[in-house]
Amino acid sequence: MKNYILWFGFLALISSCQGKIEHPAHLNSTTQVPYNNNTPAALLAQEQLDAYNRKDIEAFLFPFSDSVKVYNTLTELGYVGKERMRQVYTNWFAGLDSLNCQLVNRITSGNTIIDHEKMTYSRVGLDAIQTSEAIAIYKIRGDKIEEVYFTTP
Fold first, then answer.
1. Which end of the chain has fewer CB within 10 Å, C or N?
2. Domains of the chain, with CATH numbers?
């Protein structure tokens, strides 16, 4: 009988809280997630993300090493070098009317940053808004991003 009363008490408590519990920001994909650390690695990842959203190619490239390796998957090397990255992202930015890459969640572990990102964009001349999600893994050595891996969630 005692367990029965406790169970109903628990249900009453849950019912009284319904609609009053706020979910963490990272569960709401429309809210920018503030990262809560200021490690050098996290700051580099944030710096390039902010510049990406502004489509500022020079500021975007600054956190990357000259010999950055960019992987299309966890194992497939896409290209090497900041100059190749400049070509890829200059073309990408030029083809867009709008661009917003939102941080859904960030995990920081030493010099490795794992970002879950949701991107919304529209291409030049097209009205359609497109969205995509990706996991970006940044490997930092010294004060530069040396490797980037992209995969889908």
1. N
2. 24-151 (3.10.450.50)
Report how far residue 58's alpha carbon sits from residue 72's, in angstroms, rounded to the nearest whole number: 22
Residue 44: φ, ψ to 5° = -65, -45
Report how far residue 133's alpha carbon sits from residue 98's, in angstroms, rounded to the nearest whole number: 16
8 Å CB contact between 150 and 73: yes
42-51 contacts: CB < 8 A, separation 24 or more? Answer: 42/106, 42/108, 42/113, 44/113, 44/138, 44/140, 44/143, 44/144, 44/145, 45/106, 45/113, 45/115, 45/138, 45/140, 45/145, 48/145, 49/101, 49/103, 49/115, 49/117
What is the Cα–Cα distance from 138 to 70, expressed in whole angstroms? 10
The 10s digit of each residue's pLDDT in 35-85 is 546 889 999 999 999 999 999 999 999 999 999 999 999 999 999 999 999
State the pTM of this model: 0.75
User: Which has the higher per-residue pLDDT, 3 or 61?
Assistant: 61
Average confidence (pLDDT) over 102-114: 95
* Helices marked H in the chain: 2-17, 40-54, 57-61, 82-94
